[in-house]
Amino acid sequence: MTRSAEAAAREAVAQVFRDERVTLLATLIRQAGDFQLAEDALQDAFEAALAAWIRDGVPRNPSAWINVTARRRAIDRLRRNRTMADRAARLAELIRLQEQEHPATSEVSVIDDDRLRLIFTCCHPALDPSAQVALTLRTLGGLTTAEIARAFLVAEPTMGKRITRAKNKITNAHIRYRVPADDELPARLGGVLRVVYLIFNEGYSASAGDQLTRGELCSEAIRLGRLLVELMPRQAEVWGLLALMLLHDARRAARTGSGEYVALGDQDRSLWDHERIADGLRALEKAVRFRRPGQYQLQAAITALHLQAADPDATDWQQIADLYGALGRLSPSAVVAVNHAAAVGFAEGPQAGLDLLRPLLADPALQRYQPLHATYADLLNRAGDQAAAADAYRQAISLTQNAVERTELARRLDALGGP
Q1: Deepest of 54, 141, 254, 414, by most Cβ within 10 A of its Cβ?
Q2: Region class of 2: left (phi > 0), else alpha (psi between -120 and 50), else beta
Q3: What is the C-alpha to C-alpha distance for residues 324 and 332, in angstroms, rounded to an integer?
């Protein structure tokens, strides 16, 4: 074994893990009918791959090698596990698939994409809605427990326990992996949309790391959104979510310059993807035609107003503030409340925004919500209270794990001047 052969094997394993793990896991869960079994078998397969590929070289199709090996490891685990009630049925199905050169899907459903199928499956009505979303994000979204905790505004250990409880409930209640019937899909749609939205949101504004965005997550969420509109074209919120993602993603290239954060008002609009903006506006128009307003449509409408303004000074902040107010009544959350206060601050002046923000600052549950403190600092600065703004910026910086955001907040703090 040469050092170069070992390096090639490690790089190949890392690439399959990075690019294919979630798809492989989704397929194996469908085939094995068990979340934990699939996760354990896939981990076994990656460990086996590293040893085998260092010894024998990287196979022609590394992903297929992992897939076949994971299925074999699942069979081995099932044979050893004599406590699983339906062990025989699962074992028989895996052996049947193993004996086929090209295993076929055994379920009949309008959902052909394994990842989308599994998202619908995870959103099982027996699970608490937040547990549905958290489990799916962890299993399929590729998000870490810390990233999911940030999305739900809870501590990481709390989210870890929530995900563990969801997995245990699936096992203890004998909830089998089953693609829901087509008439069951609408009831699960809310959870599915939230999962896709949160995957996109982590890609659009990464919670940690040295990059502001994670393009692979944005692209995957948009891919799932396009599949959803094909699957359920008469659901207004499906179109609304796709519109929202497309409109946000159109600005991706302009949001950083030389690695630094670029605020919306300072972005080079020639870098915006205008074809993607047009796609997003068409999707929003289709959503609005159904006359069934929803949170994603309202968010997309807000984003459209920003993008359609001739320049930053022409932004219709009053209409944006009104839309955030409507969004807060329809789907109240801390995120919406903070954005509403910021919009009101631009439409009616910083003091009006501060009046809306102060009750949120008194909420113990939001003390570690970074955007709250960053928005508070911006409003204080515009209101002329630089000393208080500095304190708020320092608090926001202390809560920021993304290097690009932290650098931008530090720049704003420095711009205040003073000691």
Answers
A1: 141
A2: beta
A3: 10
- Long-range Cβ contact pairs of 326-331 (< 8 A, separation 24 or more): 326/293, 326/298, 327/295, 327/298, 327/299, 327/302, 330/293, 330/294, 330/295, 330/298, 331/295
Q: Report the candidate in 8, 98, 2, 3 with the shortest Cα–Cα distance to residue 50.
A: 8
The per-residue pLDDT for range 93-152, each reduced to its tens digit, is 566 656 554 444 444 455 567 777 778 877 877 788 878 888 877 776 667 888 888 878
Question: Please, is 87 exposed, middle or buried when counting C-beta atoms within 10 Å of its C-beta (0-12, 13-18, 19+)?
Answer: middle
Query: How remote is the C-alpha of 215 from its chain's centroid?
Result: 11
The per-residue pLDDT for 106 is 44
256-286: pLDDT as tens digits: 988 889 999 999 999 999 999 999 999 999 9
- pLDDT at residue 338 is higher than 90: yes
The two three-digit tokens of residue 323, written as one number: 């839309």
Question: Which structure tokens are listed for 118?
Answer: 């599994």
Q: What is the pLDDT of residues 358-412, one digit of tens each?
A: 999 999 989 999 999 999 999 999 999 999 999 999 999 999 989 999 999 999 9
Of the candidates 388, 368, 365, 369, the one whose C-alpha atom is nearest the C-alpha of residue 378 is 388
Is-contact 318 349, C-beta < 8 A? no
Chain centre distance of CA 396: 22
pTM: 0.80
CA pair distance 256, 168, nearest whole angstrom: 42
Query: Helix 129-139 crosses helix 114-122 at what angle (to 10 degrees)?
Result: 150
Place of tokens 């000393």: 387
| Whole-number Å distance between alpha carbons of 273 and 157 | 39
Q: Torsion angle of alpha carbons 204, 208, 214, 216, nearest 10°?
A: -120
